[in-house]
Amino acid sequence: MLIKGTINLFKGLFVVFKHLFKRPVTLEYPEKRRVLNDVFRGKPSVNGCVGCGICQKVCPTGAISFSKDENGKVIEYKFDLKKCIICGNCSFYCPKGAIKMTREYELATDNVNNLTLKYKGGNND
Ligand code: SF4
Ligand code: SF4
Predict the structure, then answer these.
(1) By alpha-carbon position, which residue is closest to atom 8 of ligand 1?
(2) Pocket lining for ligand 1, CB < 6 angstroms
(3) What fold, for 2-120?
(4) Using the 8-state DSSP alphabet, how is residue 113 labeled?
(5) Residue 107: CB within 6 Å of ligand 2?
(6) Which residues are 119's β-sheet partners?
(7) Closest residue CA from atom 2 of ligand 2
(8) The pLDDT value given to residue 88
């Protein structure tokens, strides 16, 4: 029992020592940040929406909603970041190229209202 325990202890220590001389895979965030690669997806944004509704159909989590006026013009477009899984489907399938996956990923907040992204008229300006 004692011998087995000692062997296991040294096995564990061996694993620790093996990693002592390797480069760490983590960074001292937020002081240091990793360079994002070209296909990185952050929170979505919309600009130039015509209200066709395709993004809503392809969104797997129901994170998109928008309202239109009587002429079919988009009044307000919303992403619910509580539901959004940043999959990029909406951006990929939008026929107008209106949705962009930004490079913003620091989305933590203590105010739940900040998790609903609202765009007046389907535009981000
Ligand atoms: S964002 Fe694109 S897919 Fe979604 S309703 Fe607007 S135009 Fe259609
Ligand atoms: S990124 Fe994915 S989950 Fe988020 S709104 Fe677009 S389709 Fe929905």
Answers:
(1) 52
(2) 46, 49-55, 94, 96, 98-99, 122
(3) Alpha-Beta Plaits (3.30.70)
(4) G
(5) no
(6) 77
(7) 87
(8) 97
